[in-house]
Specification:
Residues 179-188 have a biased composition (Basic and acidic residues). Residues 169-188 are annotated as: Disordered. The structure is a single chain. Helix content is 34%, strand content 25%. It is α+β, with helices and mostly antiparallel strands. The chain has one domain: (Glycosyl)asparaginase (Glutamine Phosphoribosylpyrophosphate, subunit 1, domain 1), CATH 3.60.20.30. The strands form two sheets. Strands 1, 2, 3, 4, 5, 6, 7, 12 and 13 form a nine-stranded mixed sheet that branches. A four-stranded antiparallel sheet has the order 8-9-10-11. The longest helix is centred in the N-terminal third of the chain and has 23 residues, at 23-45. Bound molecules: aspartic acid (ASP).
Length: 326
């Protein structure tokens, strides 16, 4: 039995505008992160697998409208939602992912079914939805994913008449007379993808990541989240990783896999490998964001190169720790 069992989660990284922070919004985020960590911690304490713990944590984060995944996902340029998710089991290297789905309530559950019940790894669009339907997963009307905050954010991005990554909203935020964002991290400048990594009592690791992508993205655009090795990776021999940030750069750096590869090939610690990816390699191509990672010994690291990242971790029998700022 591994007594270092632990779960870590993130709810996106980005720029903090302290001026727009309300105490109650901050409390809401801490409470949401705490509840999700407690649920994941219970799975691990009951002897459940890391795979079960990360699935459950990400499912709950998808259902929470505060985060850009599942309900609360950002809008495409066409005013629709397209969701991506991936999950990987470090004990077998089995993986499953789906992208560009529009009506699957919990994309992470569809990714999990791909992992468990398909010979393939990644399904897209109509094929992904057909697979999810055949698996009996819950479908919702597109309006289910709508939230006022995301819609307002899209209207602002749309006014710029171009596709934009969330963090490009810096300009928007400063030009915008509407002081409505009351989130601790300016919603126009954050990457709200969610993710979880865990080590279970049996010594296995797993990772899961889910997102609505980036605001005003072109229809059909796919980021790093559902790509194994970019937004999600897990291998008992090294670590489990889930990322959030400017997806195109994380794809080009094969960011999640790079953490594992550095541990394997350079023989460095989890901390050192993750730190190198986030603070040295990604910034070289203007990659902004962060990641969470755990190794088979129960070490965890949650680095980011933005001003903040919604994050937390919980070990069995200990109070979950949550944080937003640096
Ligand atoms: N990485 C995600 C994407 O590019 C966005 C995010 O992390 O919020 O789709």
């Amino acid at each position: 039995m591994n007594t270092n069992a632990v779960i870590a989660i993130h709810g996106g990284a980005g720029t903090i505008l302290r001026a727009s922070m309300s105490a109650s919004a901050e409390a809401d985020y801490h409470a949401a992160l705490h509840a999700v960590l407690s649920a994941g911690q219970r799975v691990l304490a009951d002897g459940g697998s890391a795979l079960d713990a990360v699935s459950e944590a990400v499912r709950l984060l998808e259902d929470c409208p505060l985060f850009n995944a599942g309900r609360g996902a950002v809008y495409t340029a066409a005013g629709t939602h397209e969701l991506d998710a991936a999950i990987m089991d470090g004990s077998t290297l089995d993986a499953g992912a789906i992208c560009c789905v529009t009506r699957v309530r919990n994309p992470i559950l569809a990714a999990r079914r791909v992992l468990e019940r398909s010979e393939h790894v990644l399904f897209t669009g109509a094929g992904a939805e057909a697979f999810a339907a055949a698996q009996g997963l819950e479908f919702v009307e597109p309006e289910y994913f709508h939230t006022e905050a995301r819609h307002r954010q899209w209207q602002l991005a749309r006014g710029q008449d171009r596709a934009m990554l969330d963090h490009d909203g810096a300009t928007l935020a400063s030009n915008n007379d509407d002081p409505t964002p009351h989130e601790p991290i300016d919603p126009n400048r954050k990457f709200g993808t969610v993710g979880a990594v865990a080590l279970d009592q049996h010594g296995h690791v797993a990772a899961a990541t889910s997102t609505g992508g980036v605001t005003n993205k072109q229809v059909g655009r796919v980021g790093d989240t559902p790509l194994i090795g970019a937004g999600c990776y897990a291998d008992d021999a090294t670590c489990a990783v889930s990322t959030t940030g400017s997806g195109e750069m994380f794809m080009r750096m094969v960011a999640a896999y790079d953490v594992a590869a550095q541990m394997a090939y350079r023989n460095v610690s989890l901390e050192e490998a993750a730190h190198d990816v986030v603070t040295n390699r990604l910034p070289k191509i203007d990659g902004r964001g962060g990641l969470i990672a755990v190794d088979a010994r129960g070490n965890i690291t949650l680095p980011f190169n933005t001003e903040g990242m919604y994050r937390g971790f919980a070990r069995i029998g200990e109070t979950p720790v949550t944080a937003i700022y640096r």
